[in-house]
Amino acid sequence: MSNLDMCVEALQRSDEKSRLQRAHRMVAISHFIQPASYVGIDEPLAMMEDAKSAYISGAFLASMASAMSSIEHMLLTEIAERGIKKHKKVAVDSASKAVTCLRDLTTGQEVLLDKVDELNKIRNAYIHPYPEGNPRRRINRADCLGVSAIEVSEKDAFEAIKAMYQVFDLTLSDVSDEEWMKTAGEC
């Protein structure tokens, strides 16, 4: 048996073992995905697809990172398209700065912005080294909740995907600048 044949056989066994879990994850996120053909900037759309595929496959850290990167792209693009380069004399060039800017400029999206802000902080704990006792590290959150670190990662990825589609739907909505923002321009 060749190496390729052995790999194919191993993948078939693995597929059978994980099929039901993947199906459950597919159903869970299907509630956020609207059946439509989307046109937009390539990177956030590609990251959305990566986030979805990674989540279904059980690659929760990759899903979380892709979903949050997609959100950051969408928010920064939305802000730039509305002519805003700086907020309170600081360049709007990151997810956290975008959330801060949007909190001051928008109405009706406070809950979503709070969620995106918290998910971004959690994403940072995945991506950057944090001290052992930091409460955002997944192992510390898992210990607090009495669950496995993988369960925490799965929940984080699910929440990030949910927020990603909420942000995407918001950026697609046909809302005028005046309706979308309390004020216009640089603030």
Work out the radius of gyration.
19 Å
Helical coverage, percent range: over 70%
If classified by CATH, what would the architecture be? Up-down Bundle
Structure classification = mainly alpha
Terminal-residue CA separation: 67 Å
Global outline: globular
Fraction of residues in β-strands: under 5%
Oligomer state equals: single chain
Strand order of the largest sheet: 1-2
Number of domains: 1
Count every beta strand, where a strand is a DSSP E run of 2 or more residues. 2
Here the CATH topology equals Four Helix Bundle (Hemerythrin (Met), subunit A)
- Provide the CATH top-level class: Mainly Alpha
Largest sheet: 2 strands, antiparallel
Word description of this protein:
The chain contains 8 helices and 2 strands; from the N terminus they run H-H-H-E-E-H-H-H-H-H. It is mainly α. It has one domain: Four Helix Bundle (Hemerythrin (Met), subunit A). Strands 1-2 form a two-stranded antiparallel sheet. Strand 1 (86-87) and strand 2 form a beta hairpin. Helix 3 (60-81) runs parallel beside helix 7 (149-172). The longest helix is centred in the first third of the chain and has 28 residues, at 3-30. The chain is globular and about 65 Å long. The protein starts with a helix and ends in a 7-residue tail after the last helix. Residues 182-187 have low confidence and may be disordered.
